[in-house]
Amino acid sequence: MNTFTIIFVSLLGLSLLTELWLANRHIRHVTANRDKVPDAFRNRITLAEHRKAADYTIAHTRFGRIEDTYGTLLLALWTVGGGLEWLDRVCRGFGWGELTTGTLFILSAFILMGLFGLPLSAYQTFVIENRFGFNKTSAQLFVTDLVKKTLLLGVLGAPLAVAALWLMQETGALWWVYVWLLWSGFTLLLVWAYPTLIAPIFNKFTPLKEGGVRSRIQSLLERTGFRSRGIFIMDGSRRSAHGNAYFTGFGKTKRIVFFDTLLEHLGEKEIEAVLAHELGHFKRRHVMKRMLLTFTFSLVGLAILGWLVAQPWFYNGLGMSQPSTHAALMLFMLIGPVFTFFLQPLLAWGSRRYEYEADSFAAEQTDAGELVNALVKLYRENASTLTPDPLHSAFYDSHPPAALRIAHITGKT
Fold it and tell me: What percentage of the chain reaches a pLDDT higher than 70?
């Protein structure tokens, strides 16, 4: 057996065992704390609401174990199991040129992977989310979304794949630098285009009407020096009862977006505090820092791929007999998460640090008590557990646990 095959399979198995171990810890910890509301929330969250959040978390985590196992098996079948080798032969069988064949191979692989993941997505939407009263997606809307995403893959993914493969084949040993520039430019284009061109394909965005909420938001924007092209309400209730808020885009396309479900549950001051948190990410340059980190990782990754593309053992070790640029690119995209899996705690730690900073900014610009009230309502309405397993949370969670986050806001840490 190829040495690289042994390394890959071993790391793949170790990642799965770690995921399952962490999931079991999380389930046991949430179950053990299911029947007692934490002291910090005793007057804000009822026992019934706390139990619902625990049950919801346990259901998702149990299903996550199935997803992790299924995903691991699929990845093994696609690689060492010969799935990509078979697909490559099918695509080559049409007798087209290398560029067309490579583009067909990459797009076909993504479409097939999406189809294999469809049953799990449907189960999560129509069974788990339904069971806890969150799902609002109809079967028709689910299928419509799937069709739209597939068409977007063709419209956006095909030109990107063609351009990347052409650069890999025609620009010499430093092709990875040019592909990185292409990918970075494409990412910036998507960030710019998402608010006005892509998001409206899936949701309806209505300008926030004049009134108390809008006046508070405009006052906050003036205090913080944030310029936006508009404040919009998104019809998130078409798909889910979960609520959220975010800002998107950059430059002149920046938008502030509230889910309609969020506005149903929060008061004016609470909405202002939630938005102040989101603006905190902007003012503390978290968005820019995350983007720069992403670009740095992608440059390093492409540099590594620039070396791997000429190594026969890379292809053979992952189940492919014929080296090619499209095979190298697809294999690298598939196995990248396996080799970076144990970096997750570090990335999660950085994200949680940003959340604390954004909370501090919001507490400075608005009433800290209103921010706490808003967060408690969001935890309650979204059935987010108040008692995650500490190790599971440290490994995965992009946001601090509820108790630590609120203690930080109120100055008790």
Answer: 99
Going by C-alpha positions, the residue among 32, 82, 27, 80 that lies closest to residue 56 is 27
Closest alpha carbon to 125 in 238, 27, 30? 238
Q: Which two tokens stand for residue 139?
A: 């079967």
Q: Which residues contact 350 (CB under 8 A, 6 or more apart)?
A: none
User: Which of these, 108, 107, 89, lies nearest to 319 by C-alpha position?
Assistant: 89
The average pLDDT across 383-407 equals 96
Is pTM beyond 0.90 here? yes
Enumerate the β-bridge partners of residue 234. 205, 259
Whether the CB-CB separation of 182 and 164 falls below 8 Å is answered with yes
Model confidence over 3-25: pLDDT tens digits? 999 999 999 999 999 999 999 99
Catalytic residue among 359, 370, 381, 389: 359
Rounded Cα gap, residues 40 and 178, in angstroms = 53
Beta bridge partners of residue 135, listed in sequence order? 240
Strand order in the sheet with 231-234: 205-207, 231-234, 255-259, 245-248
Concatenate the DSSP letters of all residues of 104-151 into one string: HHHHHHHHHHHHHHHHHHHHIIIIIHHHTT-B---HHHHHHHHHHHHH
| 203-226 per-position pLDDT tens digit | 999 998 888 888 998 999 888 888
- Cβ(106)–Cβ(330) below 8 Å: yes
Tokens of 360: 């501090």
Catalytic residue among 129, 278, 370, 381: 278
Structure tokens at 53: 């959040």
Positive or negative, the CA dihedral 174, 177, 183, 185 is negative
C-beta separation of 342 from 104 below 8 A: no
Q: Which two tokens stand for residue 18?
A: 């770690």
Q: What is the mean pLDDT of residues 156-173?
A: 96
Residue 296 carries which DSSP code?
H
Nearest to 204 by CA among 235, 238, 230: 235
Residue 206: Cβ within 10 Å count: 10
Whose structure tokens read 């046991």?
A: 28
Classify burial at 175, counting beta carbons within 10 Å of its beta carbon; exposed 0-12, middle 13-18, buried 19 or more. buried
**278 annotated active-site:** yes
Closest to 366 measured CA to CA, from 153, 224, 173: 224
